[in-house]
């Protein structure tokens, strides 16, 4: 967390995060116009933010886009704040990313001290998934083209479903995603979720990309990822369950997103 606080200490870096908060997925040239400094200066600040995990850069053709990653801030929140926070504080941002196709893309990155195989198991094993995904497990054959469904223990109802588009254990899983837990999210239609696992020393970098979202899509579709990934990290590193506003809602007998 030291790197996170160091990154947040400089006003120019906070301004860059504010710019990505307002419009996610910007190029270096676009961000350069936001600050009264040289291109090299902006690059140096972005490098610090990337090293702290607060910004994730992804290549899109010939462009390099920068995304705000709220997961490290969520981890700080869970360590010192969540004990006192009300459920409304769970969603950190309503990030907006306007592309020519009028879709949004959300990128979340986290480092977990575990093996790729164990991390893959935690993503695909129904019992493990329930421990950090608001009590909901995921059922599937986990083969390319197979269907999957997220099942809530509340009346054993399906709360999300989709198709496994790519299955490459323990490296990459691409899924279509259809939310079903409320009439509002049902109207959002189909989006896509990509899980990417990369070994880094004795740990793994997990990047979750939720894209093909409608511009100004309902924040319920992506607002819970910070809690899910924080819970996943806690489970694999400590064996403990993480108390989040989402898990509290589940414990009180409410469906995710309710």
Report a brief summary of the structure.
With 258 residues, the protein is α+β, with helices and mostly antiparallel strands. It has helices spanning 2-9, 11-22, 28-32, 39-51, 71-80, 116-124, 126-132, 183-186, 225-238, 245-251, and strands spanning 55-60, 63-68, 103-112, 137-140, 147-152, 157-168, 172-179, 190-200, 203-214.
Q: Work out the helix count.
A: 10
What is the residue-mean pLDDT, rounded to a whole number? Answer: 85
Q: How are helices and strands ordered from N to C?
A: HHHHEEHEHHEEEEHEEHH
Rg from C-alpha positions? Answer: 18 Å
CATH homologous superfamily descriptor of the largest domain: START domain
State the shape.
globular
CATH architecture label of the largest domain: 2-Layer Sandwich
Low-confidence stretches: 86-101, 254-258
As an assembly, this protein is: single chain
Largest sheet, strands/sense/barrel: 7 strands, antiparallel
Strand content: 25-35%
Q: What order do the strands of the largest sheet run in, or round the barrel if closed?
A: 3-9-8-7-6-5-4
Span from first to last CA? Answer: 31 Å
Structural class: alpha+beta
Q: Name the helicity range.
A: 25-40%
CATH topology of the largest domain: Alpha-D-Glucose-1,6-Bisphosphate, Chain A, domain 4
Strand element count: 9
- What number of structural domains do the residues give? 2
Query: So what's the CATH class of the largest domain?
Result: Alpha Beta
């Amino acid at each position: 967390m030291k790197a996170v606080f160091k990154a947040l200490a400089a006003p120019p870096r906070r301004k860059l995060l504010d710019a990505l908060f307002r419009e996610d997925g910007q190029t270096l040239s676009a961000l350069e116009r936001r600050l009264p400094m040289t291109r090299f200066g902006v690059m140096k600040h972005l490098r610090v933010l990337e090293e702290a995990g607060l910004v994730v850069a992804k290549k899109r053709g010939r462009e390099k886009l920068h995304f705000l990653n709220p997961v490290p801030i969520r981890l700080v929140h869970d360590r010192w704040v969540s004990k006192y926070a009300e459920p409304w504080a769970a969603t950190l941002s309503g990030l907006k990313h306007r592309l020519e196709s009028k879709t949004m893309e959300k990128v979340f990155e986290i480092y977990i001290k575990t093996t790729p195989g164990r991390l893959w198991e935690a993503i695909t094993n129904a019992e493990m998934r329930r421990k950090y995904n608001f009590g909901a497990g995921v059922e599937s054959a986990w083969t390319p083209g197979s269907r999957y469904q997220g099942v809530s223990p509340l009346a054993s109802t399906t709360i999300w479903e989709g198709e496994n588009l790519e299955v490459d254990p323990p490296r990459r899983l691409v899924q279509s995603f259809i939310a079903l837990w409320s009439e509002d999210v049902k109207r959002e239609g189909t989006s896509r979720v990509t899980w990417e696992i990369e070994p880094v020393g004795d740990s793994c970098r997990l990047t979750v990309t939720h894209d093909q979202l409608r511009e100004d899509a309902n924040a319920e579709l992506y607002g819970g990822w910070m809690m899910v990934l924080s819970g996943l990290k806690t489970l694999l590193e400590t064996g403990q369950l993480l108390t989040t506003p989402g898990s509290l809602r589940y414990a009180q007998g409410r469906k995710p997103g309710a």
